[in-house]
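User: Hi! I have a protein structure encoded as tokens and I'd like to know what sequence might fold into it. I'm fairly new to this, so please keep things simple.
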């Protein structure tokens, strides 16, 4: 029996484990004789017919792919308009699918990617080509609806928790004569899941981080300064974790660039120095700040074993859904219990996920707005469990895969987006 042809693409900001999903998906497809093409740089690679046959990757390279950060095939931020507004691009997608006899398109991404996948999943009837489309979840922001958590989040949560613990021990040791306040900025545009993960370090009153600033809680300068002063007076120092999406009482970002990405999102970043300057102006404490930025989402060297298992599971499940003839769906993680942590994979319709956003529940944020509750701890703790270290070479560095990806011959005229 002739196998199916699948097309896989990565989208949006990458994660420490998105390549683990790719490797698991490719391996699952190979097991049944199916072919997997991969698009270079997400949906743009599909439109421009920049495709790679993953058969060129050996089993050893697939293993290495599974523990390599970044997006080996390349990602992008590109928004498909509606069919009515830009039929030309949808016709091109169908032309590419038809030219390479693609049965199913897998789009591995977050909220915006789910929207793209939902649009593509409806093309079959409109354009008379039987294409399936399945979204595969990933996002460090952990803000996808329906799924219990998002592959990529657990590893970033682990990195942030470890980082604030280690940095706090540094500050603690120097606070009597030097730095008294450390501010760590983490990602999270509208949802404070990553910032919340830092709260796992605080097992007893007074433990760092003493202050967490969530996007869900409007920033109050006076209350913030009072909390920092109290921590310094009681413990000698204060560690602060702030989400990049922190907003004031009017709902405006504390820091946001004028530029926006393809999806209309403000470029964020730089809230840590803003918060640190408030500490200096109001309290006069010596401070240091850091922005975790790309470091948090590429830290495969300290990935959560649970997160890797999730990432691989959704990749395998996506192939199973394709073989079952499903379209317009996403494999999602379903939590069965907290202690012991048990989970499985379920299936969700994309219209229940696309353009929706899961923020931190109010019951996960402490009454004073500066920390997490026990309910949040029960949710978060299992997601950072276990280690899945990459192999290290004799030079002391991780052995990450950087393959030479040779594109297959194009069959269509060039296309300009």
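Assistant: Happy to help. Inverse folding works backwards from shape to sequence: for each of the 417 positions I chose a residue that suits the local structure. Here it is:
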């Amino acid at each position: 029996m002739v196998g199916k042809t699948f097309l896989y693409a990565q989208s949006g900001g990458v994660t420490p484990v998105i390549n683990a999903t790719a490797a698991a998906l490719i391996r699952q497809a190979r097991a049944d004789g199916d072919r997997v093409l991969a698009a270079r740089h997400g949906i743009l690679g599909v439109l421009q017919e920049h495709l790679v046959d993953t058969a060129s990757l050996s089993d050893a390279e697939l293993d290495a792919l599974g523990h390599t950060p970044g997006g080996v095939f390349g990602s992008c931020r590109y928004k498909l308009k509606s069919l009515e507004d830009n039929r030309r691009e949808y016709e091109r997608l169908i032309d590419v699918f038809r030219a390479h006899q693609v049965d199913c398109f897998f789009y591995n991404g977050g909220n915006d990617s789910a929207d793209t996948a939902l649009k593509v999943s409806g093309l079959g009837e409109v354009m008379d080509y039987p294409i399936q489309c399945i979204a595969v979840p990933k996002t460090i922001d952990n803000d996808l609806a329906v799924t219990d958590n998002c592959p990529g989040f657990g590893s970033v949560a682990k990195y942030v928790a470890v980082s604030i613990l280690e940095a706090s021990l540094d500050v603690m040791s120097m606070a009597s004569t030097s730095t008294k306040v450390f501010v760590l900025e983490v990602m999270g545009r509208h949802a404070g899941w990553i910032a919340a993960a830092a709260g796992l370090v605080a097992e007893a009153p007074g433990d760092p981080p003493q202050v967490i600033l969530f996007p869900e809680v409007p920033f109050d300068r006076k209350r913030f300064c009072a909390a920092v002063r109290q921590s310094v007076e009681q413990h000698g120092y204060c560690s602060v974790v702030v989400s990049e999406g922190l907003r004031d009482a009017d709902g405006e970002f504390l820091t946001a660039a004028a530029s926006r990405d393809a999806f209309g999102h403000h470029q964020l970043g730089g809230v840590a120095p803003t918060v640190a300057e408030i500490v200096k102006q109001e309290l006069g404490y010596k401070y240091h700040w850091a922005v975790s930025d790309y470091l948090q989402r590429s830290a495969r060297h300290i990935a959560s074993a649970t997160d890797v298992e999730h990432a691989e599971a959704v990749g395998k499940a996506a192939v199973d859904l394709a073989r079952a003839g499903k379209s317009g769906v996403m494999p999602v993680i379903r939590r069965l219990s907290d202690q012991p942590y048990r989970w499985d994979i379920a299936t969700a319709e994309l219209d229940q996920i696309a353009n929706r956003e899961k923020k931190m529940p109010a019951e996960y944020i402490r009454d004073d707005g500066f920390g997490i509750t026990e309910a949040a701890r029960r949710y978060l703790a299992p997601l950072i469990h276990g280690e899945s270290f990459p192999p290290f070479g004799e030079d002391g560095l991780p052995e990450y895969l950087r393959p030479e990806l040779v594109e297959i011959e194009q069959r269509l005229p060039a296309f300009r987006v």
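A useful reference point when you look it over: Residues 153-174 form the longest helix (22 residues). Feel free to ask if any position seems puzzling.
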